[in-house]
Write the structure tokens for this entry.
Amino acid sequence: MANIGIDLGTTNSLVAVVMSGKARCLLDEAGTPMLPSVVRYEAAGVAPVVGAVALDQAPRFPGRTFSSTKRFMGRSPADCAEDARIFRYRMDDAEPRFVRFLCEDHAPVTPVEVASEVLKALKARAVECLFGEPGGAVITVPAYFDDAQRQATKDAARLAGIEVLRLLNEPTAAAIAYGLDQRASGKFAVYDLGGGTFDVSILDLNDGIFQVLATAGDTHLGGDDFDRALAALVFPDLASRSDSEARSILAGAESAKRALSAAGDAGATADLQGCAVSRTAFEQAIAPIVARTTDACRQALADAGLSASDVDAVVLVGGSTRVPYVRQHVAQLFGREPYSDLNPDQVVAIGAAMQADILTGSSQLSDDLLLLDVIPLSLGLEVMGGIVEKFIPRCSPIPISASQTFTTHADGQTGIALHILQGDRELARDNRSLGRFTLKGLPRLPAGIARIKVDFLVDADGMLHVSAKEEFTGIETQIDVKPSYGLTEDEIEAMLEASIDNAETDVEDRMLIEARVEAEGILHALDKALAADRAMLTEPHFERISAVAEALRLLHVSASPGDRKRISELSHELDEVSATFAQARIERDLSLALSGRAADTVGAELGLNADGTRAGPPLDPSAAPAPSNHGRTSYARS
Ligand code: AMP
């Protein structure tokens, strides 16, 4: 079973695998590697819609469609109230511990559940492309993700039925994709500019260990800002336009941006709703935004105690690094051309797949030892006076353990409260609380006599386990640190149980959906055929077809699970009554083809590969069957 690499992104997610010694992203049926991280929940009992369809239809279902939810993973409602306002999500006030979005016609959903739907869709793609269950997964997370956010990511994977082999920092994955882990040592900058987020990480590689020396960035800065800046050149009143107008202007600006980025010529222009915009004007408009990213790079360098010339390689990640102006400025800042040979959208997933492959133990890529990662923030314990005793300093390579011995403060003290913290500030209140537990049942001793040994262990996934033991009595307690803001073990168990309990109805729902999709396809094809060639039918034949089509259309709209069989029957009947019509059209097309047009042109119009088969989900474009003029001729519905 091949292990997979998953880039669980804010905007898009990808899954990749190493095949024949090469990492590649798995494609969907349309040949696209990226799955929009967008989920729409349907009424109870119906599977959610995930990906491009949910994204495209989001304006119609704003109250039940969720995107960008990675921003909310493992954070408290108070932490992300501003994001909720920006994305117009209503949070469930009844739940102060973690974020739950209110969802029309559906129980509230958590960001972990949304992420698990995205992960399920990626897993399904892997199952289809690999002809079977994948092994475990390496899932990437931003370097700045804290313990709670990492735990939330693992919870989502677990809900999706994915075994997490490792969580890997995104910049580390990008560095691996470029083979930088094969070097003996080096300092690397990873510049990641996506649609709505920007971060830069400075990595230090030593003896196979990547350390994140510094990160900087802005979680509200990206290509979407380029679109707004470009749109404002032509529509300065963009802010006062209606939602739908603004959306179509911004979509136009995004296309114009891509066209300007692709144009080799600096003097190029692109069309934005009838107005020509020059590349020069675009670059002037985005200059302040790009300057903010280069300022963040300087900040990260300063935090890492480095200057730009100390950096041995710069890696570009994220779709917005395709903008030539961005590349120029990154190159200028670091005084060297950034690595950009790999697709910047795919580089993180590719690196994750390479790491996942190494974890199989029989990798064709590398004989090296496992690549190690580091913890992003220091971990410690609150001690008397509200100060922090650091156990494990940030950037320590993992796995790692550390222990310290404490004692009691008051005579006869029978319990000791342990408060685990993450962060690098001196006072407990300025750090993030990861959890609390109490060691109870201590013998009544004078202050300062008991010896309580506290152990911190960070495992290979960056997860923290803390235990405390009183050494004279052997009394012991321990905690696997769960985030303060996340799902509890019981809640996860309940969800897993629910998914098992509902397995049967889930299958029925799935079959109904499949029958509806098939009916939709048949009706759509028939409508197209009738619009073009109604004249080929006699009136009675047309009426017979219309009657069956109408019955199917009605049932398809109001379908409940009990209607599945009838929908399939009607689809079949419609196929039969329209068979001679379809055949007549095919023969007409064939005779057109034979009278001068190439057969493969006709095939292409019918949505067929040259051998007459339908396009399946290829692993990559080169895996799709090559066109051939000697193929079997068979006709699927167009
Ligand atoms: P990501 O979040 O990495 O998927 O990046 C998405 C961002 O990249 C969006 O703002 C896209 O508009 C932008 N993007 C993708 N392709 C291009 C391109 N060819 N030229 C300019 N921007 C692009």
